[in-house]
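Q: Give me the 3D complex with phosphoric acid mono(formamide)ester.
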Amino acid sequence: MQQFVSVSDVSDINQLVQQALLFKSNPLQHHAFAKGKRIGLLFLNPSLRTRLSTQVAASNLGMETIVFNVDKEGWALEFEEGAIMSGNTVEHIKDAAPILGSYFDVLAIRTFPSLKNKDDDYSEMYISQFIKYAGVPVISLESATLHPLQSLTDIITIQESWQQQATQKKPKVVLTWAPHIKPLPQCVANSFAEWMLAWGQADFVITHPEEYELHTKFTKGATITHNQEEALQNADFVYVKNWSTFTDYGKVYNNDTHWMLTLDKLQTTHAAKIMHCLPVRRNVELSDEVLDSNHSLVTTQAGNRVWAAQAVLYDILSAGYTK
Ligand code: CP
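A: Here is the predicted complex, encoded as structure tokens.
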């Protein structure tokens, strides 16, 4: 793999999932594999899980990590080609990225969307400019429209949990919209949809209120319903996530609080396992009784972020695109 920014960078999802599970069973199996290699983790937005799990993953491979909170500690970057830099931006990505590429063997970047301009966000300008100018492999730590490390983790978690049940049947996996107090990116939902559809090992259903349609380029092929009760019937996994509106871009309407997932809604499921990428707004998106019950996989899911990152790093470093 030359880069990791979407599912289309992965030639074999199952192989990557198996590698991640091998790392989970033996984290230090390749503890000196990346000795002498260095990864730069660049954050233009906050993180808990992504930052720390990627650091642990790199350390398990013997790789050095340097974290740079670009938004707080760096110069304000300009991303637009041909910009007249007479405003607040101080350094062009064209100048900064090759320098970063000379310091690191791999760059990993988190860049959220503005949620103000759909065309800008969906053009993925920030991460694309890093890729264009860095000259080293780039890993997305969540971009304007996608969160591939999260989605790989989610499939690892579903696979691991489902194989414990030793059944040949495909699981029914439901992605349900949940309420939130502020507009959030569509990244996790977009990414989960495209990975689930590319993986093809589950019956995949998306449910959300009418106003919250996602971009069809990520959801084409999924069953979509605006009836949450109907969607939850016979579900084996329920992935709960808020996202802001896509069509009337970046809005949140506050009239759908009844979409919060509660324990009584799970009665028609197959004792479904509950997933969420975290952080979660308790008793807004999901009730305490669900999060604190045996249904919840969220801690296992967040723990699996390490193995997803380790498998991706191992694959990228094995492919020989680094210096
Ligand atoms: N799920 C996830 O990406 O968590 P962080 O934002 O804390 O990294």
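A quick observation: The chain has 13 helices and eleven strands.
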